[in-house]
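Form 7-S
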Amino acid sequence: MNSKLVAAAAAALLMLGACSRETPPPAPAPVASPVAVVNEVADAYYEHVMSTTPETAYFSGIDLERHDGLADNSLQALAANDAFIDTMLARLRTVDADGLVGDPAWITHAYLLEELEARVGLRVCKTEVWNVNQMGGWHSGYAQIAQMQPVGTPELREQSLARWSRFAAFVDQEKANLGEGIKLGYTAPKTVVQRVVDQLDGLLALEAERSPFYSPAARDDDAEFAAATRTIVEEQITPALRRYREFLAGPYLERARAALSITANPDGRACYDASLRAYTTLDRSAEDVFELGKKTVEANKASVIELGRSAYELTDFEEILDRVKSDPADRFTSKDELLEFSREMVKRAEAEMPDWVGTMPTQPVVVVPFEEHEEGTGRSAHYRPGNSDRPGEYRIPLHEPEEQSRGGAESIAFHEAWPGHHLQVAFAKAIDGLHPVTELIWFSGPGEGWARYSEALSEEMGLYQSVTGPITRRAWPARGMVVDPGIHLFGWTREEAIDFMMVSGRFPETMGDEMVDRIAILPGQLTAYDSGGLEILALRKQAREQLGEDFDIREFHDRILENGTIPLPALRAHVERWIASKK
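Output:
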């Protein structure tokens, strides 16, 4: 007799004997605790992201064990990812968040629930089939990844070659995805497509050894590796990028939508609502965002007039901003002057920080100019988180320095470095007990909200040296809450949007078109800054009123920062519990 059948028969007899002796059935498996469920989902989601899109780690400051991974951007893989998210979300929804308060799992749950629900909501946009983005699209993102690709050992060189030898297929898949989008009626705006074509032209104009994709070889001293990398760049990556560029500039541009508004795509209003929620983390309608923005802009005008009366003896808002924009002393004369000025602002802000936060992170931040191929492409200054091997980076364009104002450079430096994004990110990285998944997830509402709040905080800290900085700092906030839904829902023209934004004096006149195209391709994103900033200001006012003399600004800032970019409703609950405990 087959041994497996013997074993099965023996097991059956044992079970029959057990039943005949009325032995009680085995106890059911213990039900996992809510904390265990949250951590289980967090572990699974973290592992999933690291295995399917490991490139995310470079922009989150996470150390990787291997550096040969490349995302699968096929529509089939994206569908599988959706199915995984559905499973994780269903599991997470079995947990009552109120029972987690006081445990780090409460923070993890808040991050994951918002992240997974936002991803499900955004499916209506079908962004994967019109993924043309001049604001950090995949073409510029992978150029940056190549410049961060670790090298220096045989194993790391092998991993670099493995990754970049698969990149041409990734590019071709993006082209195929866009073709599917055309069939379904989803396209990017024509002006955005042209910007990406121009960016690709900048990349393709570089000789192989100056290409960012050659960067791994340029930072290594192995001749064989250099030759292999050059071959990949010249024979695979560059031809693939050229094919993609020709497709964009030809058949795709012809079919791309003329309208700026997302409502020109199928289900556009539903997409805007989902995108607004995903960026802000608030359940607030676009109409309410628009009205709150208008109300805040009017209040800010009064504040600007107060400063204008003191600085220029003027009381008309537009006259004050015209004076700011025409002040020749407020402009830079060279790229070097702009770079050194920005570095000095970051240094001054860092020196003042211990008086404004209770916990001062030790990770440094450096000011880094854009690479040659990034200049003049419409990308704005931004922050790149550091990790254990490199500092955080405040990356700035030096293109046309004479068009950039000193006041604007101050505000942006404070927004991106200290006390803005760098403090925020470095603070969270230094906290023990947060699940690693929180480093993967970024919410613009609390994230950009803190950075917007930091621009005002810097005025309290006495960091602004220019006359124009505080004026333009006050003239700009909440305009994004108006112009973003204005373009996408209320029929604003390009000219109306530019006029509304440029009157603030916050940006060079040349940036008007760039800002409009940014709003067009990132619907809802520009509302997040002040949606979050206003919420933090409201929490600070509430804490000061309720705590009186017990209010400590350093302690308040620690409470805002200590959970990373936690969704705004969860942040409010956290701060209100702190206020109650203090009282």
